[in-house]
Amino acid sequence: MAFPKGFLWGGAIAANQAEGAYLEDGKGLTTVDLLPTGSKRWDIMFGKLESFTPLEGEFYPSHEAIDFYHRYKEDIALFKEMGFKSLRLSISWARIFPTGEEDQPNEAGLKFYDDLFDELVKNDIEPVVTIAHFDVPVHLVEKYGSWRDRKLVGLFEKYATTLFKRYKGKVKYWMTFNEINMLLHLPYVGAGLVFKEGDNKKQIQYQAAHHQLVASALAVKACHEISPDAKIGCMLAAGMTYSYTCNPEDVWDAMEKDRESFFFIDVQSRGEYPGYAKRYFRDHNLSIEMEEADEALLKDNTVDYIGFSYYASRATSTDPNVKDMTSGNVFGSIENPYLEKSEWGWTIDPKGFRITANQLYDRYQKPLFVVENGLGAVDVVAEDGVVHDDYRIDYLKKHLAEMSEAIEDGVEIIGYTSWGPIDIVSASSGEMKKRYGYIYVDKDNKGNGTLNRSKKKSFDWYKKVIETNGENLED
Fold first, then answer.
1. Where in the sequence is the active site (predicted)?
2. What is 8-467's CATH number, 3.40.50.700, 3.40.50.300, 3.90.76.10, 3.20.20.80?
């Protein structure tokens, strides 16, 4: 169960799910700030937005979240106590450029992240920073239609370049877009896309994808030029697709579903559009507008490592009689009879973690960074004041064991930041009751609570894992 020396153990959060202070110190509205709880949330995530301002009578969990903006020192002290070597987090684009179009960045926003990174470094915790984690200034959505417009490429390049210059020497690990393939599944979340009746959604999505891929390449180029010692990666929502049977039609369908996600990383890691993507565009009459320099830009500016999230595997069948679908997973999957499920209907598949890591490394031959993995569950505070989350320990223990096996297989993995080391707002449902953390935050789905932090049983378990560099996974 040995992990490499210097392995980056830690946890992962996102600005829009943790910070709160949604209009403080000059910050502008971002796309997530328009996502309420309830049924409207899902309509918006798929691209149906009623208003470019928050609506009266709706509850928007991102507006306060867990108030990490004001409490980050308290939280970092707890991460330090667990022994974190790294913390993956994101920067809110609208804290730096409130509308996305300002000539000069917002100094108050820059200073907040300066102070945050300084606090991490002071506690020997390496910042791992995502430039865009489901985060687009609302002004850019309203004025340009977000990433459907090429204008965002230049604006993102300015934003990324500003970050590299400001935080040179403080941040050594960067990622461009969080779960970039989510653009195809939750287009508003992934790229701020809003659709109107009659839109060719696939055309818009893949054009937006091209713009993000070009923007990512420009960010890689800028990072390498400004901060040559830093590493910059991409990030995939991963999880392999199983063929339900050995019917060749099922096997082909599973491969195509995996390619739908691999497409993005193929471009970011290999530097060119794969043949299967070009055929898909032809077969679906999609015409992707590209500039003359795009191909060379993509080829010359590939990422240094592959970041990925892993929560669940998927399964597919071409048999119309196989209809039982899992719930709670935006990728869509038929039920796998060999696997258990979480309270939200996500399959629990530790072996799939090992398979996925091998699959990615075999494909790209670049270092991998596991930047999200964890179990969302309803946690109950017991009479002794502690959440006894043995179910979470069991989930993580099995996944870490399989990650260790993947390393033994020869897969190069540089770190592991489990998702939500402290309870934060769920990206999908906007709930607080879907908890991932080792640290309990006293807040409910309606925003009530003290926001007090307390340690769960898993806190001491993960501390021991880190202390032993993964050699002791027992509770």
1. 372 (nucleophile)
2. 3.20.20.80
